[in-house]
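Write out structure tokens for ROK family protein.
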Amino acid sequence: MAKSEKKSKSHTVIGIDIGGTGIKGGIVDLKKGKLVGERYRIDTPRPSTPEAVAEVVAQIVDELSGRDGAPDAGTPVGVTFPAIIQHGVARSAANVDKSWIDYEVDKAFTSRLGRPVEVINDADAAGLAEVRYGAGKDVDGTVLVITLGTGIGSAFVFDGKLVPNAELGHLEIDGHDAETKASAVARERDGLSWEDYSVRLQRYFEHVEFLFSPELFIVGGGISKRSEEYLPLLKLRTPIIPAKLKNEAGIVGAALQVAIHHKLAK
């Protein structure tokens, strides 16, 4: 192996992003915050039990491990999961089988893959990636990354460090769970124009702004690609901008989290 290839491998980690419909992974260059090569995706199994999902994760890791630029065998793997994750244990289950609740995800994946695994909430992973490599890079203080999708995901980052499991989509506003009114799915369900949707977003973001006084809001999720339709309509003290890493944020954030935990990245 060439010396330059060894050097590049020392800065790569596999990240896996588990979603309700698909599980995707990639080799992440920790210096650049970008994927090395194409991501690899497999549909989320039905039912999405822990055993079935672990098998798909193992398949993806095997595929990525055989590629050029893959990290050394045994290098820890980062995995996102759509749940509250506390000390490696799932405390909820969004869009996956309810048997995940109180399941020791870290231990189960570590056992199946035969290498250390660090599991992180999916929104937290995306937020961590955006602050290290994306729209929130070099911003001090509180940065809130809000993802608008099926629900509302959130990541709370202070001076570059993640405060995990900030479930700001479940704030009660005007008697409702915020995400039931202001998520991207809620806009589609209720047939809202961008102008009408921005009214709901205004109510949500001004409430979050009052509670936390952040330095920056970053908006992610699929509709961040249409941010010019609604972000200019919001009137906030806090700057609010679209996310930059798009669909790769979860993979990159998962890799970054495990790298930080195992001191693979500074």
